[in-house]
Design a protein that fits this description.
The chain is of the alpha/beta class. Helix content is about 35%, strand content about 25%. The protein has 12 helices and 15 strands. It has a 9-stranded mixed sheet. The longest helix is centred in the last third of the chain and has 20 residues, at about 300-320. It is globular and about 60 Å long. It starts with a strand and ends with a strand. About 45% of the residues are buried. The mean pLDDT is about 95.
């Protein structure tokens, strides 16, 4: 069975996903939809036989698609997912679910009435380092978690606007929030402090915070602190988490895992570990067979992560802890 996968979005992530798809057996990428037909035509030209569309309604009417990938900026979500739900087309979307909380809430309520296959791009869950991390903590009691997403500010105009990206914690650090949930369990309360120290002096129209720390209380009793910034010079970054347990200190970075025990240090590294491909393989398997067990983050699960990031923004604005509604 050859799967026909449509793409919504014309940026680097659309190209990356389309490239992975086009390299797979029995998969073709026949169409791209962009904010303009010109943008869609331009990216479609890189893929044999692909067509560009300026309207999703036209693409869905013209093409017979088995699934769609949605790779658009946070503020562009909503109507796209609505159309895919109406057409009963499975979709994989890149995180975050939106720049705010109302759009995903509306979508999740609609999905509850369907059995539609969905996947969300929390690709770190598919990495070998994360699976080993999860395994290494199985017999330990986690006490405290410390995580960080430190880097520079993405140079796209919509990212620096709160209504465009949702801000650093919603748009990027969401990966760390998601891993905290995946490894240590659900979160019941957040308390955040954000600030804008540098970027509003260097760039015009910056409305997102550029530093922040969020304290999180988990239902299990574990406590965590996640910090982030986007003020570093271009090319500098630090992304990772440390878990302090009754048996070890386990430090994770995307391609490295260090486990420090009383008997010494163990270290493992992953050089060739394409989590995006694993994510796609799991999604396509579900589309072909109906078996969703290999999808590690569907829309319903991703919504729980999005709740946390939005609650953190609310906490920073109000200056009070925010309880998370189940």
């Amino acid at each position: 069975m050859t799967l026909r996968i449509g793409m919504v979005g014309t940026g680097s992530f659309s190209k990356m996903h389309a490239t992975i798809l086009s390299e797979m057996k029995d998969v073709i990428v026949p169409s791209f939809c962009g904010s303009s037909k010109e943008k869609a035509d331009k990216i479609a030209a890189s893929f044999e036989g692909a067509k560009g569309y300026g309207l999703l309604t036209e693409m869905l009417k013209t093409e017979q698609l088995d699934a769609v990938y949605v790779c658009v900026p946070p503020m562009a979500h909503g109507e796209i997912e609505q159309q895919l739900i109406d057409h009963k087309i499975p979709f994989l979307i890149e995180k975050p679910l939106a720049a705010e909380g109302e759009t995903p809430l509306s979508i999740i309520n609609q999905l509850k009435e369907t059995s539609l296959i969905t996947s969300v791009g929390y690709h770190f869950r598919y990495k070998g380092s994360v699976q080993k991390l999860k395994e290494s903590l199985t017999d330990s009691q986690i006490g405290i978690v410390s995580g960080q997403w430190m880097g520079d500010m993405p140079q796209v105009h919509w990212w620096r606007k709160q209504e465009g990206s949702g801000g650093l914690f919603i748009e990027q650090t969401t990966h760390i929030v998601d891993l905290l949930r995946y490894i240590a369990g659900e979160i019941e309360e957040v308390y955040a402090s954000y600030g804008n120290l540098v970027n509003h002096k260097k760039f015009d129209n910056v409305t997102v915070a550029d530093v922040g720390t969020v304290s999180l209380k988990l239902k299990s009793g574990v406590v965590a602190t996640l910090s982030n910034t986007c003020i570093l010079p271009p090319g500098m970054s630090q992304v990772g988490m440390s878990f302090y347990t009754d048996k070890s200190i386990v430090t994770w970075e995307p391609d490295k895992l260090e486990i420090t025990e009383a008997i010494g240090l163990k270290q493992e590294e992953w050089q060739e570990d394409n989590a995006y491909r694993k994510e796609t393989e799991a999604f396509l398997h579900a589309v072909r067979t109906g078996d969703t067990s290999r999808i590690l983050s569907d829309y319903a699960d991703a919504y729980l992560t999005h709740q946390i990031t939005c609650a953190s923004l609310e906490s920073a604005r109000k200056g009070v802890p925010i309880k998370i509604n189940s």
